[in-house]
Amino acid sequence: MPRPVDLERSAARREAITVAAADLFARHGFENTTATDIARAAGLSSGTVFYYFTDKRAVFRSIFERDIPVLRELVDRALACDDPVAAVLTMVDELAADALDPNASGILVELLRQIDRDPELLRVVTGNDAILLDGFTTLIERGIEAGAVDPGLDAREAAAWIVHLVDAAYLGADPARDPRPMLRRLVTRFLAPPTADPPTGEQG
Question: Its Gene Ontology molecular function terms (predicted)?
Fold first, then answer.
């Protein structure tokens, strides 16, 4: 049975490889990054990458696999909130925070290039999206029941649009410009129940 220290060392090395690979893939692309490049950037010997990962695609998948527990924890916290709209906005804020990372748009572009070439990657990303969709859908349903969200919205469809908005923040990421205030504004207006009079400046 592996000792705790061995498990910790293994987890730390896997994380170091994943972090180094994410930076290289974002800046140079998947095809132009070698296992040797990743090992060097992680401060490990060249053979270490394939000790912890079966191949380079497994390394790329690990970037998104490590999101799974983070997303589950985010959704669990949101579902524990008494205000469903505030919970949706908090989720949007936290999901969009990494768009300020200089590598954000690069890694998303590379994901779009690779996802059709790796069924396992598609499975991981689809699973991540499902966690978010389920969370947003439940919160929107609660908001509709509470009268805080437009009852004309289909909760699942609205949840998908919110995920698309967050994804768009990554595609157009600019480290010098925080997308979160605009995302909050868009999502707030999108979810708001209809009123008799449109807000000032939005008539006609």
Answer: DNA-binding transcription factor activity; transcription cis-regulatory region binding
Give the separation between CA 91 and CA 114, rounded to whole angstroms.
27
For domain 4-53, which architecture applies? Orthogonal Bundle (1.10)
What pTM does this model have?
0.87
- Tell me the C-alpha distance between 95 and 170, whole Å: 10
**Which residues lie across from 177 on neighbouring strands?**
174
Which regions of the chain are under pLDDT 70? 1-5, 196-204
pLDDT in tens, 152-180: 999 999 999 999 999 998 887 777 889 99
Longest dimension (CA), the chain: 70
Where in the chain do CATH 1.10.357.10 domains reside? 66-191
The dotted CATH code for 66-191 is: 1.10.357.10
Nearest to 130 by CA among 109, 160, 87, 85: 160
Collapsed DSSP state (helix, strand, coil) of residue 68: helix
